[in-house]
Structures are given as structure tokens and as C-alpha cells.
Design brief:
The chain is α+β, with helices and mostly antiparallel strands and about 900 residues long. Helices cover about 40% and strands about 15% of the residues. The chain is built from 32 helices and 27 strands. The strands form ten sheets. Strands 8-7-10-9 form a four-stranded antiparallel sheet, with no helix packed on it. Helix 17 packs parallel to helix 21, helix 20 runs antiparallel to helix 21 and helix 24 runs parallel beside helix 26. The longest helix is centred in the middle third of the chain and has 28 residues. The protein is extended, with a radius of gyration of 41 Å.
């Protein structure tokens, strides 16, 4: 017994052992022992063999103690019984011992278990019984015979059948045909280094390590169906031949057995069936074919019974798919398509398809089989386990297709994580991924569709058929430029030039990433562009689309035309860009944008992928609008933190930044000059009256305070006992000053109480921003935004007006108003706040809601509001036969109540 295990074993058996002698384990090596069962002992106990390299010296072959480096003192006694027939490591020990003897004289594998997992006649006590069923009987017998010292159970992983997870499996020794791949390890490794792996660590990690420790490929399988192993053996001499093709087999002398295939074909024909000619090289027909042996006169050559590992078939795919080298033209086809640009499969194929292709290609062609390999993460079920047909731990894809569409599932798989990350298949996750891209883009298309129809915008009607057909109906930019109303991009407004620049830069980025097989980054950029298109371009252009179709002002007409053309070009190009990712949405977009024009190509999937026109990209303009959007985003965050609705106007926004681009953006604001357009846009987006830029960074201290905290998780390990001193120093320091130091030097240098000087990097600290009373704040990479939260009566009234506009707009939708329908509105309220708001902002309320009339009735002081009064407040002045009258609805805006009635005036358009 191992000395380290003495106390452990003694505790288990509750005994105090007496130590008789202590010596090293090596002292036991070579000693013999009597096995617990006599099944082979009587026959082989005295068997000896000659050792390799010695002419006379011999040694017992069986039941000897040997050494191995995998035995530990974690459990047991330090001595391990080997079962070479049932364990890889144990079998390696047997092979190592066999190599010590002359060929054919070493220990042989003995096994008393049959292929069915039951004991054979060589173990008569348990003959015919499944091995796992006799565990208790074996323990009971050993105990009865006084051979069992102590029995206990160990919990460990155990293999079960992947098709029936309640059936335990055993490892079992089988004779097999091998490909000696271990002979080519260096070449396998060298060629692997020329392949691009995604993720890169697979190359030298999981796959590279597997190649470096390569063992010979067990090629044969004992199955009925599969590619027959093409080896014929001489019945008399045992010598073998490998046959290269069926024609080579037919050319052998004395071929017989072909009649089995011909008989099978005739029989099938009589039954009205046809057997495919490919079946003649499979079982049972190929097994009947024999020929004269070239090794022994009068003997026959017969095929071995095994078939080839199906992974060999998969690895042979690159050349086998062309019938190489036997089919006519297959050599040219193969060479044209070899090696593959890329392959892709899940992580579990590292030792499967990835390896079989690489091994065969290395051995046969001395070339890698593929240039790039994308290793996918595993698809997990909703329970977090690998998806399995047997476990049924997944939702049927058709359920998702019917409920959300195939594009939703495709986009979820493409855009939500890198492809090599495991992904959990979840209906909720698929649903949650839709609004950011699919729904947003669909809404933009709908916006274009609605307003384009209202204004009769039909860009393709301005282009003659021959011009459209000149580029095969793909509507490339050069074709669009031939339209009569087309305005060159360089001559358009900044907003148009910006979004078209973003479009082309997105195409450049997506093309680069797709060429690098990085669809996750490509999808992220597409999502960002759709956000820019929807949440900035369309938002900022909405008033131009809404302008009256009857407006004859040339500048208004030009502005609207530019907006339509820009949105059309963005959507048209997007339909081509997203086609590989969401094919159904792309097709719907193409159909709507081409509007049935017969000169256009029928499907977006017949178009070439768009090419980026980088001449449209203006980096300065892109940076400027990016800063605008950052300021607006921070302002909205500050509003949200202060629980202030965007519809509530605020007095002022203060912006602090050391970035000179911010100063250029706000040029003229402080001097009282005309407010620049981009500043006006910020005012409108954040609903603020005034914008002020803080030129002195120290001014921000009047509005906010900073707290600098240490990153405890990181610094706790590094500083240990010094961490409390650092916390104390940071708490006493000026947070704004420390932050300025960090931005200027990318580090903070601090002297703490014990005299030590510490350097803190950005990742060492956490920064917390807090707004002072009457302000709300948020900070970003380039600036800090501060909003005044104090509300005057005038601001509150305007807030009510905006809420009334929203309420009326919602009511328009509820009663089915078209976008162009004119309405009459009646409002009854007991709130003087709402009365004042309507009186003050009547014109803007009517303009925004297309109200021909807005009539206000003040309810009594008892706050009782009559629904009839609201309806009565709406003038019956113009009533056509198709007038739609809504029901009156009661509404509360904050704590103020009103009754609202909306009627459509006149016929619908």
C-alpha cells in the first residue's frame, strides 16, 4: 500500500494498521501475483517469452507487476489492476510490455467478454451475462472467498449510448485496419499552419494539439452499409491486394461472382423496381466477387468483410464529388476547385470532418484541403444543453418561421454573437433581437412607402427602359443618375451627404468583414447604419416629407425631392447588402422599390453585391454628426435619469468638452450670432430652448460632481493591504481634477498615506457622475451634457401642448385616419392648465395634427366632464357622405383630465 494512503484506508476500514516494512514502489516491479479469478491462470501461469535483445534470457509473460506514470495516490491503494481489453491507457501498458519481448513471444490480449458485452465460456461462472449486471455478484464472490478487503463506490463520468441515453456502453478491443497517419505528423502540422482558422486559437490549440499527438487512423468498421474496404485476401497464403477501382477488379484473372448483381437486378425488374448501378460496389454484391490469387496457384482472392469509416467518405468529398480521377473532366473540375476557399462546421468536428479532410489531403496531395475554416459554436437547447433529437430539447424551427419569419431566426444566428460562441436557441431571444434591426428597417420601408405614394414619387418612371436594361436591370448608381429629378450627391444638403457617406462606408466595412469571414462584425455595422437611417436621417427629415404636396416653393420641392431620392438610394442599396443575411426582407424591399418595373432584374438575389463609392464619404461631416448624435444620446440619458419626458421642453443644455471639434460645432452660440443648423437640430431633438458651450472645463464643477472609486476586483489582488489607504485617498481627492489628469495623461499618479506612490490606469478606476440640484447629467467619450430640470409655467404649458398633440395623433391611428385626412378636434376639460396650453399653442397643435378646427370647451368647476359636450364641441360644419365620427374618449395627461373627440372631415383620399 502507498504510504500516503495509509491513514485514508485505515479510516475507511476503521482499523489501526501495523507497518511491517517501508520500501519504494520500484521494489515491487517484476514480482508476480495470483489473479482473483483462475479463468486464464491455469493455462498461462507458466508461459514465458524471450526478451528482445537477449539470446537466452526469458521472462514470465503474465501477472507481473509493472510500472506506469499515470497511477496516482488520490484513491485506492497505489496499486492498480490493468484491463488492457477495456481501456486505452491500460492497452498502452500492454503494448509497452509486449515491445520488451521478441516478436510473437510477449503477452497477448486476453478477453473473456464477447462483442455483445456478455461474458464468454472462458469465464464460465458468469457466461452469457451482461457485464454490468454481474458487478454485485463479483463483489459478493470475492468477499465470500476472503479476497475483498474493502468495497466503495466512485462517482465518475460514464459513456452512454448517444441514441439511447439509458444504455451504458463499454470500451471493447476490436481488430482494425489503420492508416499510418502518425508517420505524417510533421507534414500535417506544417500544412495546418498555412490555414486561416476562425477563431485563430483553434489552429495551434484544439486542432494543432490533436495533430501533434496524432495516432493512426482506425479506418475499418464492422457494419453492413458503407464504402467497402477494397482489400482482397488470398485464402491460402493470407497475402493481400488493394484494388483501385471497379474496372481494375473486373480486369483481374478468373473474376467470378458478378452474376449475384445481375440476378438482383433482374429480380428487382420483375418486381417493378430499378436498382441503381452504384449499388454493385456495395454489400452484398461486392462480397460475392472473387478472382484467381496471384500468390498461390488454385487459391481465390476474397474481399475482407469490413467497410470504411464514414469519416473517410466525408474527408474524400473534395475530390470524390467530381468522380476524380475516373470521371471524364473530373481532373480539371477538381483542380479548379481545390483547395476550398472556406469550410465551416461546429466545434465538435475538430476531430471529425476537419481532421478527415486535412489528413486525406495531406497524404494524397500534400496540400491543405481548405484555405479558411470557420469553427462554429454549438447550438444549445433552451435548457442550456447541446441540442439533441433524442432529448427533444429544442423548438421546431417551423414554429419560429410561422410566428416570426425565417429572417428573424437567420438574423439572430448571424448578428447576436461571434459564430464560434455557443448559442442558446430561445424563442424569447429571437423575439428580442427583432426590433433593433428587422422591425426598424421595416418601419423605414413603410415610411417611404406611405409618403412616396402620397406624393407620387416614382423614381424609375423618370428613367427610360434602355438605360435600366443597360446594366441588366440592377439599378446601379450610374443608372439612377440619369433620372430627370436626380440631384448629384455633392450638391445635396449635409444630412443627405452624411447618410449616403455612411451608406458607402458601411458597404466598404461589410465587404471587408465578409471577405474575412466575419459576419458578426458585418451585421453589427449594418445594424448601426439602419439605426442612423431611422433614428437620425428619417427623424431629422420628417418635416420635409410632411410638407404639403401642393407647396410650390422651389426650395421646398427641391428639399423634398432630395430627401426622397436619398431614402430611395439607401433602401435600394440596403436590399442588396442584406440579401445574404435576411433574404426574404431583402426581396420584399426590392419588389417594393422597383414597383413591378419589368426592366429591372426580377430578384434582388440576381443582383451583384454593391460596391462602395468612397468619394461620397466626408470624414469631417461624419465626425460632426457623430458628435451631434452623442450629445443627443447623452441628453436623452440625462432626461431619463431625471424622469423627464422628451415632450417636456427644458430651458437649457450645457455642454462641456475639451475636444476642439465640439467648439467648432458650436461656433457662434455664445456671441449671440445666428444659431448654426446643427445646434438647432440638437435643440429640437432634446426639446431645449438654449444651448450653451462651456469653454472652460472647470465650469462643469458648478453642475456635477465626480467620485473616483478603485476597481476592487483588479486592485484588490494587486494592492492587498494597501487598498484601504487608496480608497481613503481617492475619497478625499477632487474627482474632477483626477478625471482631467486621467484624460490628459491616460493615468493618475497618487501618493497614499503610507508614502507609497501609485500609478492608476483607466482600467484601475471607476468614475461616477452625479448632477447637482436642479440639473440632470450624463457623460460620454467626448463630452458631458447637463440639462436644467427647473420648469417654468410657460415650459409646463408647452409640455401639455405636446402631450395633446401626441394624444390626438394616437387617436387618429385608433379611428383609422389616413396620413392625409383632415380632422376636426373637440376638447372638453376642467383643467385650466390644459385650457391655457391649447389657447397658447393652438396653431402648432392644428398644424401637427392636420386639424381643420380645434374647439375647446371648459367643463364646470366640479370637474365633471360630459362626453356629449366633447362631441358637441366638434363643428358639424363640413360633413360628407364618407365622414367617420369617432367615439369620445376620456384621457389623463399627468394629473389633468380631458375629454377628446376627433372626427374626420370630408372624404378620405
Amino acid at each position: 500500500m502507498a504510504k500516503e494512503l495509509l491513514e485514508t484506508v485505515a479510516a475507511k476500514v476503521k482499523a489501526t494498521p501495523e507497518i511491517l516494512e517501508t520500501f519504494k514502489g520500484q521494489h515491487l516491479v517484476g514480482l508476480r501475483y495470483i489473479p482473483p479469478f483462475p479463468f486464464y491462470y491455469d493455462e498461462f501461469a507458466q508461459a514465458k517469452g524471450r526478451l528482445a535483445g537477449t539470446p537466452v534470457f526469458d521472462e514470465y509473460r503474465y501477472w507481473r507487476i509493472v510500472s506506469a506514470d499515470f497511477v496516482t495516490t488520490d484513491s485506492g491503494t497505489g496499486l492498480v489492476h490493468q484491463a488492457p481489453a477495456f481501456g486505452e491507457v491500460d492497452f498502452d501498458v500492454l503494448r509497452s510490455e509486449t515491445r520488451r519481448f521478441k516478436d510473437g513471444e510477449g503477452p497477448e490480449l486476453i478477453c473473456a467478454v464477447g462483442p455483445d458485452g456478455k461474458f464468454t465460456a472462458e469465464a464460465p461462472t458468469y457466461e452469457g451475462r451482461w457485464v454490468k449486471d454481474v458487478d454485485k455478484d463479483i463483489a459478493r464472490e470475492l468477499k465470500h472467498r476472503g479476497l475483498l478487503f474493502h468495497q466503495e463506490q466512485y462517482l465518475h463520468d460514464y459513456p452512454f449510448c448517444w441514441r439511447s441515453d439509458k444504455d451504458p456502453l463499454i470500451q471493447y478491443p476490436r481488430k482494425s485496419w489503420f492508416i499510418r497517419t502518425s508517420q505524417f505528423v510533421d507534414r500535417l502540422v506544417a500544412l495546418n499552419r498555412t490555414i486561416n482558422w476562425y477563431p485563430e486559437h483553434i489552429k495551434e490549440g484544439r486542432f494543432g494539439n490533436f495533430l501533434a499527438t496524432n495516432v493512426d487512423w482506425a479506418l475499418s468498421r464492422e457494419r453492413y452499409w458503407g464504402t467497402p474496404l477494397p482489400i482482397w485476401v488470398c485464402e491460402q497464403s493470407g497475402r493481400m491486394e488493394a484494388i483501385g477501382s471497379y474496372d481494375e477488379l473486373l480486369a483481374k484473372p478468373g473474376v467470378a461472382g458478378l452474376d449475384v448483381w445481375e440476378t438482383a437486378k433482374k429480380s428487382a425488374k420483375q418486381e417493378g423496381r430499378t436498382l441503381n448501378e452504384d449499388l454493385k460496389i456495395h454489400k452484398p454484391y461486392i462480397d460475392a466477387v472473387s478472382y484467381d490469387s496471384p500468390f498461390a496457384a488454385g487459391s481465390r482472392m476474397r474481399r475482407v468483410p469490413e467497410v470504411i469509416d464514414c469519416w473517410y467518405d466525408s474527408g474524400a468529398m473534395p475530390f470524390a464529388q467530381w468522380g476524380y480521377p475516373h470521371e471524364k473532366g473530373s481532373k480539371e473540375l477538381f483542380e479548379k476547385n481545390f483547395p476550398a476557399d472556406f469550410i465551416s462546421e461546429a466545434l465538435d468536428q475538430t476531430r471529425g470532418w476537419f481532421y478527415s479532410q486535412h489528413a486525406i489531403s495531406t497524404l494524397v496531395f500534400d496540400k491543405p484541403d481548405f484555405r479558411n475554416c470557420i469553427v462554429l459554436g454549438l447550438m444549445l437547447g433552451e435548457d442550456g444543453q447541446k441540442m439533441s433529437k433524442s432529448k427533444r430539447n429544442y423548438r421546431e424551427p417551423n414554429e419560429i418561421f410561422v410566428k416570426y419569419g425565417a429572417d428573424a431566426l437567420r438574423w439572430y444566428l448571424f448578428a447576436n454573437q461571434t459564430p464560434w460562441t455557443a448559442i442558446r436557441y430561445s424563442e424569447q431571444a429571437i423575439k428580442d433581437s427583432m426590433p433593433e434591426f428587422l422591425l426598424r428597417l421595416t418601419n423605414v420601408l413603410s415610411f417611404y412607402d406611405v409618403y412616396g405614394k402620397i406624393d407620387g414619387f416614382d423614381p424609375l418612371a423618370e428613367i427610360d427602359v434602355q438605360t435600366i436594361q443597360s446594366d441588366r436591370g440592377q439599378l446601379t448608381p450610374s443608372v439612377l443618375q440619369s433620372a430627370k429629378s436626380y440631384v448629384p450627391i455633392a450638391g445635396r444638403r449635409d444630412l443627405e451627404r452624411w447618410i449616403l457617406g455612411e451608406l458607402n462606408d458601411m458597404i466598404r466595412f461589410v465587404t471587408e468583414k465578409m471577405d474575412a469571414y466575419d459576419h458578426y462584425a458585418a451585421c453589427s455595422r449594418i445594424t448601426a447604419f439602419v439605426d442612423s437611417l431611422s433614428n437620425w436621417y428619417v427623424r431629422r427629415s420628417r418635416d420635409r416629407f410632411w410638407s404639403s404636396a401642393k407647396d410650390t416653393d422651389p426650395e421646398t420641392i427641391r428639399s423634398k425631392n432630395e430627401a426622397y431620392w436619398t431614402l430611395f438610394e439607401c433602401l435600394l442599396t440596403l436590399s442588396k447588402t442584406i440579401a445574404p443575411f435576411v433574404p426574404f426582407l431583402a426581396e420584399r424591399m426590392w419588389a417594393r422599390l422597383t414597383n413591378g418595373n419589368a426592366a429591372c432584374v426580377e430578384s434582388v438575389h440576381l443582383c451583384e453585391y454593391p460596391e462602395a463609392d468612397l468619394s461620397t464619404v466626408d470624414p469631417v461631416l461624419s465626425e460632426t454628426i457623430a458628435l451631434q448624435r452623442e450629445i443627443v444620446s447623452l441628453g436623452r440619458n440625462a432626461r431619463m435619469n431625471a424622469k423627464l419626458k422628451v415632450r417636456q421642453p427644458l430651458r437649457q443644455i450645457e455642454i462641456s468638452s475639451s475636444d476642439p471639434r465640439i467648439g467648432q460645432l458650436f461656433s457662434g452660440v455664445e456671441t449671440g450670432a445666428v444659431v448654426p443648423d446643427r445646434v438647432k437640430e440638437i435643440q429640437e431633438e432634446l426639446n431645449v430652448k438654449h444651448v450653451r458651450i462651456l469653454t472652460d472645463p472647470s465650469e462643469i464643477a458648478r453642475y456635477v460632481s465626480y467620485t473616483i472609486l478603485p476597481n476592487l476586483k483588479k486592485l484588490g489582488r494587486e494592492l492587498g493591504k494597501r487598498l484601504p489607504a487608496l480608497q481613503k485617498t481617492l475619497a478625499a481627492a477632487d474627482g474632477a481634477q483626477l478625471l482631467a489628469e486621467m484624460k490628459a495623461n491616460e493615468k493618475i499618479v497618487l501618493k497614499i498615506d503610507d508614502g507609497a506612490v501609485l500609478e492608476l490606469l483607466p482600467e484601475d478606476i471607476q468614475i461616477r457622475l452625479a448632477a447637482k440640484e436642479g440639473w440632470a447629467a450624463a457623460d460620454g467619450p467626448n463630452c458631458v451634457v447637463v440639462l436644467s430640470t427647473e420648469l417654468s409655467p410657460e415650459l409646463i404649458a408647452e409640455g401639455y401642448a405636446r402631450e395633446i398633440i401626441r394624444t390626438i395623433q394616437n387617436r387618429r391611428k385608433e379611428i383609422g385616419c389616413d396620413y392625409t385626412d383632415r380632422i376636426d378636434v373637440g376638447i372638453v376639460t376642467a383643467s385650466q392648465h390644459i385650457v391655457a396650453a391649447v389657447d397658447q399653442f393652438r396653431a402648432s397643435i392644428q398644424r401637427e395634427t392636420l386639424a381643420e378646427a380645434l374647439r375647446l370647451t371648459s367643463a364646470g368647476s366640479d370637474n365633471v366632464v360630459s362626453r356629449a359636450a366633447a362631441a358637441e364641441a366638434v363643428s358639424p360644419g363640413v360633413v360628407a357622405s364618407e365622414t367617420v365620427v369617432s367615439e369620445t374618449v376620456a384621457i389623463k395627461i399627468d394629473s389633468e383630465s380631458l375629454e377628446l373627440d376627433v372626427r374626420i372631415v370630408g372624404s378620405r383620399r
